[in-house]
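Project standup — Tuesday

K.O.: blocked on the structure for the chain from last sprint. Re-posting the sequence here as requested.
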Amino acid sequence: MKVAFLGMGVMGAPMAGHLADKGGHEVTVYNRTLSKAEAWTGRHGGRAVPTPRQAAQGAEIVFACLGNDDDVRSVMYGDDGALAGMGDGAILVDHTTASADLARELDAACRQRGVGFLDAPVSGGEAGAVNGVLTVMVGGEPSVFDRARPAIDCFAKSCVLMGPAGAGQLTKMVNQICIAGLLQGLSEGMNFAQKAGLDGEKVLDVIGKGAAQSWQMDNRGKTMLAGEFEFGFAVAWMRKDLSIVLDEARRNTARVPVTALVDQFYAAVEAMGGSRWDTSSLIQVLRQEAKP
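H.V.: unblocked you, prediction finished:
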């Protein structure tokens, strides 16, 4: 198919790469900094264009993976926006982690133009994008999902329709709530182990074979012990995601006290200069507070 991908960041670039290399699709890419899009075409072929509208013209599916609600709106709307270039029957798939309100807004805007829409945030981080094994949680119409699914499968190990527009974003919020609480628990456990004089790696090996096992433990436990955080999913992005969670919780009256507390701990990590550190850096707050 002819497809477009908007956003050549750490997630978008490899996702678009799988569409071209694994799926064999004809990919046109857009990035606010055009040189990044041109660098992508140097590796994967396709075309780089200077506006979202040009990228979307003639595309059967337009994918986007951007920063936040405002970034998405700036790329979708206006004379040079993607929606202005999309033809009747095309599909917009937004992989940005954004608000459910934005998803519903885009769904309505797409319907007015005769365009299908899916909100499809992902989980799996940069490694999942690079290796093509992302988990994709989707909101939208079943018929639109069925048409887009084969292309999404180029970079996904799991792709599930969760409900109407907005359901994908709401599911991603649940994902981030669970990760936040889990990482705080893992941080406290590893800090406790070190303070108790235990061999942290042996602790991980033993409890990782039982009920405490998790992806975070398997992939972040040892680096947490070593104080290594210059990689992975940045604290600043997690705080953006948690702000979306907390806003939604205020609307739907869900109680998320642990999530609100962990968000404060992430604010403390940012105050330490760790906005670009991996989210496992929560343990640094405990280490700092333990100082006399």
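K.O.: great, moving the ticket to review. The chain has a mean pLDDT of 97. The radius of gyration is 20 Å.
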